[in-house]
User: Which sequence fits this backbone?
């Protein structure tokens, strides 16, 4: 357990950043340069189907002294035609993971998979998932100590999902452990949804609001929605790592109703397309009906771009930090992507990581 | 050559574009819709089963059996085509044996038999009617082709081990073997003399190129030979499908989508696959696809696919311009209606949460005016394939727009032209019932006499595919709204008992409901609405009695129970028992014998209250027992059964937190109130001189105090509990008692209070 040898509190004074911004940076820099062990393990998520790190991404990961990379290996969904759980979107590696980064294989499993999987198939599902992770990791020379499962389980699937986690844990070697993502509602209603039988949880501190056409709301992060959950975080019985947002998506709206999420499309993409008009920053209106990047837009459809900014990510980090017990933990940014990095300076991420020192 | 496996490539092309889920998606509820249908309009009115999978659905396909073969089962079609090839002179079973069962060795034996007369063959082969076919050259060509097809079969039918952990070797990765087979196939293709066999070789080779991953080769071979696919049979479109898949893989979307549209229109078995694969990416490639169309029909099929895929109105307008009588419009029209009604038929009629002030049922502001106008104008012209359906649609839209005269006009037209089409006629009738309800602002006796027959029709009609069940549900809720709007609350409650959760908390309304139930000569409508209501007279009286209990009018409650001639069901556990830690399950596992009925609990409480009035030791004990009962009757105690009635609901029906969060509903608020219990614990403590007993009373009062605090806990308060006057009193006055030590042993909060952990 390279990073989790101790849960003791970090022996430095707790800094509250009430002074000027400059003072905060100064404190943070001094703090990181000290000889004392850092409390935060800077991490990123890698959430694409092809593993290829651009020069920019490599540079960011290196200079930010990122220690862990959570890499999504594949998803597991319920295959309706075969009536069984099936892996989809398996990653292919065009690059190797830099040696300075400890890779954490992540598998996303849909809740529907557990809704449909009969209980007697859960042990074999756990074996399949483990073998597939092992196969990919062996083939790509990934040595891992942690496996993470990402599933938005519910009270209905709790028993099957937790059994799956228990079975998966049994396959791990000494020194390896299992973690699971935790959504905010699962923290608040843990009496109902239960606490997964894993060593650590990864709290996803984003996507807390309703995805809506409403101009005022930001479903990725807004302080008010987050505030409805923060009081429960401290009492969650698992040691928690933290995932913070740095991404964007478009919300496709027709007649006031959300049609779909437009992943990997930015404001720039819409600005460049003359078939869209922009009424205000971040909002686009289709001038006619047409296809664009695989999506169909009807005349007068709206696109609302939601994106995090360095300021928003930092605000989320600060709000979250106030709700935590002090402990050694990974603080992970979702997600590692050149497009995102063009909007964030390295120092923006440094500030986020240092929030938790 | 086994039956064709599903054309996975169709699906593959889509799955490549799927966005991976998970971390990026935390708001799953948005996309997690079950197939819940709120529709009043049956798409089946177009009577075309080929289009059925494409009716509007929350899933990708409508009522589609996903366990079947998405790419179609060609077994029967294939055999039929071979039979035609042999001019129906070879038995189907003999052909089936050769095509699907015989192995390569058997085929070789037969080839030798035809090449060398006298070559020994088995009796069963000798009896195969193929041998009687007069043209031996054709037989030999057929057998050679079958041999080649069977060699290709493992590549085409290979199903990847889902988890990639078996010992299976993927034959499609054996590039050398595939190249050799392709060479062999091309040679055989060039030497084949029969057009039909020629075409089959083209199919096999295009498919082999595809599964070998040589998409460019696949496309080139298809383009070089597609002119030979002259016969309009299943093979032509299966070949085209693979070529389209290869084109999509190489991002030649315009041609891929064009070919998919041809497959969709010409191959019933591949319709679903072709639709699922159709996926324009940019406007330019879509426009390019349109330019490829060689006829009005081809162009309109492309528009039709776009209509299903994304934009029915635009597609209908385009198709209507050139071919108003095209059957391609039928599906798009019913899809458009079903999509639009999702906006104008409010979900509140199906999901509860009806509002009290809604005077209009349909959300007309949500209707797309362009679609409405288009449907109306086309219905008026009457030059379509299914004019009845256009009239139905126009009538429905006018209904939603509250123009009832026009509704009548179009529905009458639909009825007139429906003739023997019972589904269309009943769809029109269903909409007429909805119109009857909708145009009624003040329901009177005459209305009720008529509507009761219509409601019974909606309830009992058995016409397949008619959405009368939905219409019935809508009608009850809508009528409830109308009666509520007219302040006829009893009728409104009967028609929708979930509308007003506070109905029975109003004693006047409750009495009026009982009066209706007791009315001797009820009208048909009154009889009908009472059958819709889930509560009986006895449920209402029990609820009223329970309300009196929680107003601490115990004697009145007993009288009310007795009006009903019931004592209430037995309550689990002993309401007069209390512990340091509440444990309902423990108490319910050891009920007193005999168990208390609800009335028996109340009678003992009345008696205890009398005994508690003095200053004696008995009064102290009675106060204590009475306090236990008051405590146990609350949400925190072991006798929740007292307030659990059919009107309030049962705790097993919903998680406890729901009850907590929604406690104002149905007058539940009082069940959280422990103040009477606290009052009598305090009294018992004050009356008694026994230190042990006093300590016990004091601790129980502390529990009441804690519960009160929990319910009113300030938001900013983050700790588990807050000590109050009674913890302090325990520590100050009773620390020497045995009971005090017991509390320390069992109560963590108290230990925390004492700083013991």
Assistant:
């Amino acid at each position: 357990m390279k990073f989790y040898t101790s849960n003791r509190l970090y022996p430095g004074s707790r800094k509250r950043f009430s002074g000027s911004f400059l003072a905060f940076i100064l404190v943070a820099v001094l703090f990181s340069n000290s000889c004392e062990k850092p409390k935060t393990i800077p991490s990123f998520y890698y959430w694409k189907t092809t593993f290829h790190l651009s020069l920019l991404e490599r540079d960011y990961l290196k200079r930010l002294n990122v220690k862990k990379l959570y890499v999504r290996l594949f998803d597991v969904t319920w295959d309706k035609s075969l009536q069984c759980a099936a892996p989809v979107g398996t990653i292919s590696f065009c690059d190797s993971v830099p040696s300075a980064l400890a890779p954490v294989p992540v598998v996303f499993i849909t809740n529907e998979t557990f809704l449909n999987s009969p209980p007697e198939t859960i042990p074999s599902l756990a074996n399949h998932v483990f073998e597939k992770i092992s196969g990919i990791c062996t083939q790509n020379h990934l040595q891992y100590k942690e496996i993470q499962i990402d599933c938005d389980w519910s009270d209905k699937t709790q028993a099957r999902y937790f059994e799956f986690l228990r079975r998966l844990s049994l396959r791990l070697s000494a020194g390896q452990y299992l973690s699971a993502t935790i959504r905010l509602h699962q923290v608040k209603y843990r009496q109902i949804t239960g606490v997964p039988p894993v060593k650590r949880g990864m709290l996803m501190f984003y996507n807390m609001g309703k995805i809506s056409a409403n101009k005022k709301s930001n479903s990725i992060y807004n302080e008010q929605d987050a505030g409805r959950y923060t009081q429960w975080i401290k009492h969650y019985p698992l040691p928690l790592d933290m995932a913070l947002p740095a991404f964007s998506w478009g919300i496709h709206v027709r007649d006031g109703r959300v049609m779909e999420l437009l992943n990997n499309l930015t404001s720039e993409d819409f600005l460049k397309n003359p078939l869209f008009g922009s009424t205000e920053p971040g909002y686009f209106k289709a001038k006619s009906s047409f296809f664009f990047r695989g999506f169909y837009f009807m005349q007068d459809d709206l696109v609302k771009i939601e994106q995090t900014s360095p300021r928003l990510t930092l605000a989320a980090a600060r709000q979250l930090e106030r709700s935590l017990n002090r402990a050694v933990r990974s603080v992970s940014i979702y997600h590692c992507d050149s497009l995102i990095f063009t909007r964030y300076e390295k120092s923006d991420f440094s500030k986020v990581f240092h929030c938790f020192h | 050559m086994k039956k064709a496996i599903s054309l996975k490539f169709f699906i593959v092309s889509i799955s490549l574009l799927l966005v991976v889920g998970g971390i990026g998606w935390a708001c799953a509820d948005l996309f997690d819709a079950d197939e819940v249908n709120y529709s009043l309009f049956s798409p089946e009115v177009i009577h075309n089963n080929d289009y059925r999978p494409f009716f509007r659905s929350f899933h990708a396909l409508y009522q589609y059996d996903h366990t079947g073969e998405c790419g179609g089962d060609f077994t029967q079609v294939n055999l039929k085509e071979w039979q035609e090839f042999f001019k129906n002179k070879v038995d189907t079973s003999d052909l089936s044996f050769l095509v699907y069962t015989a192995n390569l060795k058997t085929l070789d034996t037969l080839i030798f038999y035809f090449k060398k007369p006298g070559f020994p063959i088995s009796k069963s082969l000798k009896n195969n009617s193929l041998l009687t076919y007069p043209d031996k050259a054709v037989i030999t060509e057929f057998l050679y082709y079958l041999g080649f097809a069977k060699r290709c079969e493992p590549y085409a039918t290979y199903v990847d081990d889902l988890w990639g952990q078996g010992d299976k070797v993927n034959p499609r990765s054996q590039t050398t073997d595939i190249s050799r087979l392709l060479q062999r196939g091309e040679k055989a293709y060039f030497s084949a003399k029969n057009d039909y066999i020629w075409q089959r070789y083209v199919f096999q080779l295009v498919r082999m190129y595809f599964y070998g991953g040589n998409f460019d080769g696949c496309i080139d071979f298809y383009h070089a030979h597609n002119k030979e696919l002259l016969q309009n049979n299943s093979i032509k479109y299966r070949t085209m499908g693979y070529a389209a898949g290869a084109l999509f893989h190489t991002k030649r979307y315009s041609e891929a989508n064009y070919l998919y549209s041809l497959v969709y229109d010409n191959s019933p078995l591949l319709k679903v696959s072709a639709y699922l694969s159709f996926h324009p990416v940019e406007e330019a490639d879509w426009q390019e696809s349109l330019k490829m169309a060689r006829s009005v029909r081809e162009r309109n099929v492309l528009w039709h696919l776009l209509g299903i895929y994304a934009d029915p109105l635009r597609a209908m307008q385009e198709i209507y311009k050139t071919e108003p009588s095209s059957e391609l419009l039928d599906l798009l029209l019913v899809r458009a209606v079903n999509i639009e009604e999702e906006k104008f038929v409010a979900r509140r009629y199906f999901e509860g949460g009806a509002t009290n002030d809604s005077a209009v049922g349909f959300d007309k502001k949500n209707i797309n005016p362009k679609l409405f106008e288009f449907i109306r104008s086309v219905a008026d012209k009457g030059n379509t394939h299914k004019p009845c359906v256009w009239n139905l649609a126009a009538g429905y839209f006018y209904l939603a727009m509250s123009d009832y005269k026009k509704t009548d006009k179009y529905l009458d037209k639909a009825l007139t032209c429906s003739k023997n089409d019972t589904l269309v006629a009943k769809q029109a009738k269903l909409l007429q019932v909805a119109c009857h309800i909708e145009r009624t602002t003040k329901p009177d006796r005459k209305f009720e006499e008529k509507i009761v027959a219509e409601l019974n029709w909606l309830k009992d009609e058995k016409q397949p595919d008619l959405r009368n069940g939905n219409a019935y549900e809508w009608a009850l809720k809508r009528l409830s709204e109308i009666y509520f709007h007219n302040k006829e609350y009893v009728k409104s409650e009967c028609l929708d008992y979930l509308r007003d959760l506070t109905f029975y908390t109003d004693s006047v309304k409750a009495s009026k409901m009982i009066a209706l139930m007791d009315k001797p000569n009820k009208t048909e409508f009154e009889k009908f609405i009472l059958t819709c209501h889930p509560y009986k007279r006895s449920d209402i009286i029990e609820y009223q009695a329970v309300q009196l209990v929680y107003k601490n009018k115990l004697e009145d409650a007993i009288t009310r129970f007795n009006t009903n001639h019931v004592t209430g069901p037995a309550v689990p556990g002993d309401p007069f028992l209390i512990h340091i830690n509440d444990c309902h399950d423990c108490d319910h596992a050891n009920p007193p014998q005999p168990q208390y009925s609800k009335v028996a609990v109340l009678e003992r409480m009345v008696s205890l209250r009398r005994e508690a009035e003095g200053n004696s030791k008995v009064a102290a004990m009675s106060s204590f027992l009475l306090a236990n009962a008051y405590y146990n009757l609350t949400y925190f105690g072991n006798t929740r059964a007292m307030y659990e009635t059919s009107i309030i609901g049962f705790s097993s029906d919903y998680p406890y937190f729901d009850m907590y969060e929604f406690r104002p509903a149905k007058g539940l608020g009082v069940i959280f109130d422990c103040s009477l219990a606290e009052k009598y614990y305090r009294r018992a403590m004050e009356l008694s001189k026994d230190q042990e007993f006093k300590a016990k009373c004091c601790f129980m009062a502390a529990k009441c105090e804690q519960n009160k605090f929990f319910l009113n806990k300030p938001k900013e308060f983050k700790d588990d509990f807050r000590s109050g006057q009674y913890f302090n009193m325990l520590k100050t006055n009773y620390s020497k008692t045995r009971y005090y030590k017991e509390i320390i042993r069992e109560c963590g909060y108290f230990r925390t209070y004492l700083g013991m952990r």
Notes: Chain B touches chain A at residues 6, 15, 17-28, 30, 32, 66-68, 70, 162-165, 279-283, 285-286, 306, 309-311, 314, 343, 366, 368, 655, 657, 718 (CB under 8 Å). The two ends of chain B are 77 Å apart (CA to CA).
